[in-house]
Specification:
The protein has a domain of 243 residues: Rossmann fold, CATH 3.40.50.1100. The chain is 46% helix and 16% strand. A 6-stranded mixed β-sheet has the order 4-5-15-10-11-14, sandwiched between helices. The chain has a 5-stranded parallel β-sheet with strand order 9-6-7-8-16, with helices on both faces. The chain is globular. Bound molecules: pyridoxal-5'-phosphate (PLP). The site of pyridoxal-5'-phosphate (PLP) has 17 residues, from helix 12.
Length: 503
Amino acid sequence: MEVLYKSTRSNKNPVHASEAILKGLSDDGGLFVPDHIPVLDRTLKELAVMDYRQTAYEVMKLYLTDFTKEELKTCIDRAYDSKFDTDVIAPLREAEDGHFYLELFHGPTIAFKDMALSILPHLMITAARKNHIDNEIVILTATSGDTGKAALAGFADVEGTRIVVFYPKDGVSPIQERQMVTQKGKNTLVVGIHGNFDDAQTGVKKIFSDREFERELDEKGFQFSSANSINIGRLVPQICYYVYAYAQLMAQGKIGEGEPLDVVVPTGNFGNILAAYYAKRMGLPIGKLICASNENKVLYDFFRTGTYDRNRKFVLTSSPSMDILISSNLERLIYHIAGEDAEKNRSLMEALSGQGKYEITAQMREKLEDFRGFYADEEQTRAEIRRLYEKCGYVIDTHTAVASAVLRQYLESPEGGEAKAQGRRALVVSTASPFKFTGSVMKAIDEKYGSMGDFELADELSALAKVKVPKAIEEIRTAAVVHDRQCDADEMKDVVREFLGIR
Ligand SMILES: *Cc1c(COP(=O)(O)O)cnc(C)c1O
């Protein structure tokens, strides 16, 4: 049955999957959601013998129903290949007490954004072809770090696309900046903005909503699109690894068929955990959906009280990809628990943009019964990195450590204690390689590392964890800087013009 995509803010004009991917956001400002959530049409036993690519196909075919089998398989094959440093793509690591870490950081930029951004470019050009669009697709992105590099790596040298990434010149980590400015690919441009992330973000939004510029581009054979995490073309590929992980655990005899598996997800924009929610609704035996936050604990408060309130101090933590006060993808969950009522969702989102907060009804709260919210502060995060290393020799990054610390808290709660007594398994989603956040990780293990530089620390970490330094880090040690463009926020449009050669 075909799945159409509706806006979370109106019931009008549902679109095909390919159109939703091309548009990114609905014209009314809402997010695209499937008009029904499909159910897995393979048994867990069948899935347990499939590799990552086969599993991805079985999941994605149910959502991207206007793509042919051939088209989807081609996209999947191009995405999940030797860019990943392991054939299994998303390996599982068993740590203490029968709990597992799903390592989603084996792609080209060693963070989980690769899971979706390695396939999005292929979905997008296929979607363009299907919709008879001849324009070149120009991706514009503002980044505070991880997304920019993953998008660059995904779109680099993809025929029919160009990508421009703006980042705050003094607002990303040295490793993150080096990763971006050494990016190869004729169709890529990386620009440092004199300003902060908000300035970059606002500038990109301004260009997106400039109708005059849009017309001008169209005449020259270009059109903009966005690669940010609200695109359905990023959400759907993220459902695949939950199905894969469950089936693999079954294949390895770690869980029995149908046994509930709790998942713990380090959360920022709510995309990753929302994918787990969809997987559960598709029939995957996921137990609790445990949302892990850092000190920016808006979501923790939301799950406890039913009030989402962004009016608070923004805290810079050692898990920067989770430093977020407005979790955009939560809007999709709100829409579902409001009974797919677009009106109701819209009024809540208007309250969020007006007063910075909203409260859901008791009836809506009941539909959140599978979710749990916990958070870990900076000290707990550091302590968890040290503890796990000392106990198992396993080194995790700061984001994963937030989730891992949260799992411990859950297991110490009455409910978690009961689950533990029943021998229930949990899956911690591991979203970044420790090599991406070497400074914080190594300092957590021993203060003595505090004075060393990032590359030196990478070698220390390699020795400690008995893991080779990933290619992504080796590469940037010696790679030449190919992007040195800088500009003021009000010059962004001119920079784009110049890059596209339409002065
Ligand atoms: C983006 C990111 C997250 C947050 O994921 P969401 O889908 O935005 O909730 C967590 N960890 C890392 C390392 C990330 O890059």
